[in-house]
Amino acid sequence: MAEQLPETPETAEQETAEEEPVKQRKNGLYPGVSDELAESMKSGWADTELRDLEPIPQAAETAARRAALSARFPGERLVVPAGNLKTRSNDTEYPFRASVEYAHLTGNQTEDGVLVLEPTADGHEETIYLLPRSDRENGEFWLDGQGELWVGRRHSLTEAEKRYGIPASDVRKLPDALREATGPVRVVRGYDAGIEAALTDKVTAERDEELRVFLSEMRLVKDDFEVGELQKAVDSTVRGFEDVVKVLDKAEATSERYIEGTFFLRARVEGNDVGYGSICAAGPHATTLHWVRNDGPVRSGDLLLLDAGVETHTYYTADVTRTLPISGRYSELQKKIYDAVYDAQEAGIAAVKPGAKYRDFHDAAQHVLAERLVEWGLVEGPVERVLELGLQRRWTLHGTGHMLGMDVHDCAAARTETYVAGTLEPGMVLTVEPGLYFQADDLTVPEEYRGIGVRIEDDILVTADGNRNLSAGLPRRSDEVEAWMASLKG
């Protein structure tokens, strides 16, 4: 990684009041910048303005979302920040991901961006506040660590207006404007401390929470663009699972990290990133629900629980799980447990349809698993008693699914009455993911069960007449999984 050049007194004096001062690197190899070099860096650069830009593909959808937001909060100023870079260590940052609320409303993914809706007599006036192109006159573009010479070109404000269909302005002027603003204001909290500080005497936690809840509930029903992006995410994820099966021999020679790295390659080549930390859990690690250390051995004869999803360039993520026999064939006991989970998932998926209660798919899947646990003698029946007391949860552990979208656990801030206690509608996308997990130290089950964990997860779209499995491209039935693995290895 190249060193950052220091600022000089000459360049520091040229900073304007609304600009951040150029940051200085304490131990840089260059102690300063000569007047001649500073003058040279100001000129001789080609005009790179992009004049033939088209709006982003989802521009119509983001405009409709902003209109719905405007209608919900008439007469109020609404502030939705993208967020800022976060330091990983010293002077390196984590990869930036804009807040879901901001990205959903604008399609923009730029750090420090802020969407502001100013109230008018008949709605709101929209402005997207962004960092403009780096200043070449004062040397910011090559002397500042976030200058374009260091981190790459960003769109001009004119270009941003064309891409997002929203008037754009310099975000460095926004805090002062917000401090002077009057009238009711709401802000999405937790992303931009500077913006929140500018509004500290104008907002209340209760009103801001109402805004956050509304923006979360806006995402419960996906539009056609969103469904298309989720299908892209799933299709890439299917290819990622195929990649993993093809290299299981290399994972056996190394560790679960080979699996993690293999899937990550597909995610970065075809998408933006993984949608969440991949769970590459081999052997007894499969009984740990969120095993993301991925540093354990991969052994023939064990199962691999792979829970992973590709995130598209527009932030929509898949969330798919398959539990695969590392050898290519399930043992008799592994197959018995796997088939029980498969039957539970079949019952859960069948319960996903418009007009059904959200909880129906969970209850259907849990009923099947409770039946099997009673049948195997692991818990005393009858089944209704087991379910009433929740005794099956020792081995089923988690809920059977969740909403899916730009967050892997999407719409999390929605009200309970519109989510868990709500009713399914066409356009909703949710996971159905029952599982059975027998911990390695669970003395209440026969020894041969211990250390076996199985989960099967698919991404299900509620349609007008039922549902569609977006991840149907991956086999689920145990015999189909074995045949699929054999074909990929062969």
From TrEMBL:
Keywords: Aminopeptidase, Hydrolase, Manganese, Metal-binding, Protease. One of its GO terms (molecular function) is metalloaminopeptidase activity. It is an enzyme of class 3 (hydrolase). Residues 1-34 are annotated as: Disordered. InterPro entries: Aminopep_P_N, Creatin/AminoP/Spt16_N, Creatinase/aminopeptidase-like, Pept_M24, Peptidase_M24B_aminopep-P_CS, X-Pro_dipept-like. SUPFAM superfamilies: Creatinase/aminopeptidase (SSF55920), Creatinase/prolidase N-terminal domain (SSF53092). Residues 10-19 have a biased composition (Acidic residues). Its cofactor is Mn(2+). One of its GO terms (cellular component) is cytosol. Residues 57-196 form the Aminopeptidase P N-terminal domain. SMART domains: AMP_N. It catalyses: Release of any N-terminal amino acid, including proline, that is linked to proline, even from a dipeptide or tripeptide. Its EC number is 3.4.11.9. It comes from the Bacteria. Belongs to the peptidase M24B family. This is Xaa-Pro aminopeptidase. It comes from Streptomyces griseoloalbus.
